[in-house]
């Protein structure tokens, strides 16, 4: 079997089984693990799979833009955000990651809540300050 044929079969197996292991593929194709590792390396370089220790996984889908994500499962995000806001007490320091759910949380923070918010996200502080009537 040619290496190109083997690579096509590896991709088919990966699509069906959602993961492949170098040792299993080596036995299945009766070739050395070095040959399989080389195949996996080449397929990863072509963007057709993601290499992991001992094998490979399908390529992860790209993360959707924030404008798309903010309109997905809105009710769930609002529910989570509301619960998070209820946990914040005056005087606390709150560390907030970037994202659509945390963006919703920032939007829901009461104007009169005296707390310190620390974040790496550029968009979250501006959303928060826009909603502050007293600041």
Give an overview in words.
- The protein has 2 domains: 55 residues, Winged helix-like DNA-binding domain superfamily/Winged helix DNA-binding domain (Arc Repressor Mutant, subunit A, Orthogonal Bundle), CATH 1.10.10.10; 65 residues, Rossmann fold (3-Layer(aba) Sandwich).
- It has 7 helices and 5 strands, in the order αβααββααβαβα.
- Strand 2 and strand 3 form a beta hairpin.
- The radius of gyration is 24 Å and the shape is rod-shaped.
- Helix content is 53%, strand content 12%.
- Helix 6 packs parallel to helix 7.
- The protein is mainly alpha-helical and 135 residues long.
- A 3-stranded antiparallel β-sheet has the order 1-3-2.
How is this structure best summarized?
This protein is mainly alpha-helical. The chain contains seven helices and five strands; from the N terminus they run H-E-H-H-E-E-H-H-E-H-E-H.
The whole-angstrom Rg is 24 Å
| Biggest sheet strand line-up | 1-3-2
Oligomer: single chain
Low-confidence stretches: none
Overall pLDDT level: 86
Domain HTH deoR-type: 3-58
InterPro entries: Carb_Metab_HTH_regulators, DeoR-like_C, DeoR_HTH, NagB/RpiA_transferase-like, WH-like_DNA-bd_sf, WH_DNA-bd_sf
Organism: Klebsiella michiganensis
Protein name: Transcriptional regulator
